[in-house]
Every structure is written in structure tokens, then in C-alpha cells.
Amino acid sequence: KFGEFSKVAFRLYACGDATAQPGHTTVFVWMAHPPGLSFTFNLRIGDSLSTAPRLWQATMIHYRMDLRWVQLASALSSQDGGLSITLQVLQWHGPEENPADSHVECHTNVSLALEMLQGAASASVAAMADRGVM
Fold it and tell me: Which residues pair with 27 in a beta bridge?
């Protein structure tokens, strides 16, 4: 779940997809609706692997990235049971530069997106407090 306004799904191809380099894994991140705001994010896989920051554009509904299999295998071997994949928002940016380029019916409005941002920030602080980081 991505805040209160969308759902996120992950699809992992351990041997990569058709365009992946040998020895790489492909990860797709799908969002039910474009977020309406751009943001910088990374993926946290398990407890030990974080991807480099990436930019999710306001009008996008999916993102594709490749990871080295040895990095993913290391993250998998350090897990006890299931694998957790978390989309971490690192920085929020404004709405798309040209709203005419997107279809309003396909994504949330800016005020709803801002409400979602506030909720995400509160959830992040609560999660950090639960882990004893704060």
C-alpha cells in the first residue's frame, strides 16, 4: 500500500528480463494510479540491500530496475523466512510540470497527494520509533 491513495506491487525476475545484463535480476514496481507528485525513492530489500536513489515521475505507473544477482542473493540469505521489499520515499517533489501531459482522471489531485504525504511522513516517524531509531 502506498499511503491512502494507491497500491504498489513488486514483480521480481530472478534471472532478469529480456533486456537485463547477464547476472542481473530485474525488479518492476507497479502503482495502481500515477501519484500526481514526483518523488525520489529507493527500494529496501530485506535488512541489508538498498538500491540507489531513483526518480519516480508524477505521471508514471511503473518503474523497472536491474540489480546484481549476487547482491540480491546476499539479501535473501540473510533473511529468516519471507523477503520484505519496501519502497522508501526519500524526497517529494512538486506536481508534474505540465498537467496537460497527463490525464486527470488517472491520478489523484494535488491536495489528496499532499494529504497522503503527511500520512506517509507520520507513518515513517512511527515506524522509526517502533524500531528504536528515534
Answer: 12, 65
CA distance 88 to 50: 9
Q: Please check whether residue 98 is in contact with residue 59, taking contact to mean a CB–CB distance below 8 angstroms.
A: no
Place of cell 529480456: 18
Compute φ and ψ for 78, nearest 5 degrees.
-90, 0
Cα–Cα distance, 21 to 93 (Å, whole number): 31
Q: What is the pLDDT of residues 12-37, one digit of tens each?
A: 999 999 999 999 999 999 998 888 88
Q: Phi, psi (5° rounding) for residue 95? A: -65, 170
- The pTM (predicted TM-score) of the whole model is 0.67
The string of pLDDT tens digits covering residues 45-54 is: 988 899 999 9
Cell numbers standing for residue 34:
500515477
Residue 67, classed as helix, strand or coil, is strand
